[in-house]
Amino acid sequence: MAEIVLGVGSSHSPMLGTDPEHWRLRAKEDVKWPAHPFRGKTYKFEELIRVRKRESLAEQLTMDVWRERHERNQKNLDFLAGKIADADLDILVVIGDDQREVFFSDNSPSFLVYNGAKVLNKKASKNQLEAMPRGVSIAQWMNEPKEGDLEHRGAPDLANHIVKSVMEDGFDVSVADSMPMGRFGRPGIPHAFGFFYHRLLDDFRKTPNMATLPIFMNTFFPPNQPSAKRALAFGKAIGRAVRSWPGNARVGFAASGGFSHFVIDEDLDRRIMGAMEAGDEQTVVAEPESSYQSGTSEIKNWIAVMGAVAGGGLQFRIVDYVPCYRSLAGTGNANTFGLWH
CB 3.0 to 4.6 Å from 258: which of 88, 270, 295, 299, for a disulfide? Predict the structure, then answer.
């Protein structure tokens, strides 16, 4: 039977692909955003500044701090990339979300398993880049191939086995063997997956024989966001499916995104990270759903991986936690790097 031998988790924030001298580009967009979720409420940017005044966030906004955290981020990404390359995987299952790049309100599945033979990662077009906020487009390089569109090898046999198995476990999942045309009329995988394929796997140059299997969860958009409890159960169902797949395949899991953003909440992050390190599923699923909103909802991708690897002897640890603030309102990305090994 197949064996789950590794799990990794990584944020995929544009700040990871942006020199600290340009981090303020995203802060300019934060000011314009009409509602920022934070601890069960929503705030305008100026309101958040007042709410967080006592946190002395100005200390987090110096260039020295930003450069130190940027260097840590890059070292952590390189460390995880090395762990994936060294694991000698046959298949890497990536659990991520879509942010209206591929799926829209006319068809937004809660769960989707990609069962195509090829996984297409495309370079952004000039029009696509021009339509992005500057603080996003400047980091697009980390989500796409260097030289042009690339097709990576999918894992349709395992994908179809997972679909059949999780449906027997009560999950009515969607499937797709190719990506829809997407926001700009061009098919291809969204950034939650492209980030792993390019920034961490270097377009599979060090792992040319490894296949990939994307699995989507709609963490972002009401009304059909899976709860944390459901994400954990889904992950466990996927893990059971993988372990029941005939053969000797070495399988790894990757959680893409998180932790708290676009408003950083270190208390929330440390509470959930501590529970994950302790294997405390109850604390993870008991967290109010209001905590898992906006970008912070991507913690659920980690929760699904937590479920998938459970019971297989892998131990979880946080490799590093690097909160990268970009404004007095506490906006930014709490870049987080984790390992199940």
Answer: 299
Peptide bond just before 222 cis, omega within 30 deg:
no
Domain that holds residue 280: 3-254+263-340
Angle 137-196-7 from CA coordinates, rounded to 5°: 145
For the chain, 341 residues long, the average pLDDT of each consecutive 10-residue run is 98 98 96 96 97 97 98 98 98 97 95 98 90 94 94 98 98 96 82 98 97 98 98 98 96 98 98 98 98 98 98 96 98 98 96
C-alpha dihedral, 16 to 20 to 22 to 26, nearest 10° = 50
Contacts of 273 (CB under 8 A, 6+ apart): 259, 318, 321, 336, 338
The enclosing domain of 104 has a CATH number of 3.40.830.10
Judge if the upstream peptide bond of residue 223 is cis by omega within 30 degrees of 0: yes
Instruction: Check if the beta carbon of residue 253 is closer than 8 Å to that of residue 6.
Output: yes
Q: Measured between alpha carbons, how far is 25 from 47 in angstroms, rounded to an integer?
A: 20
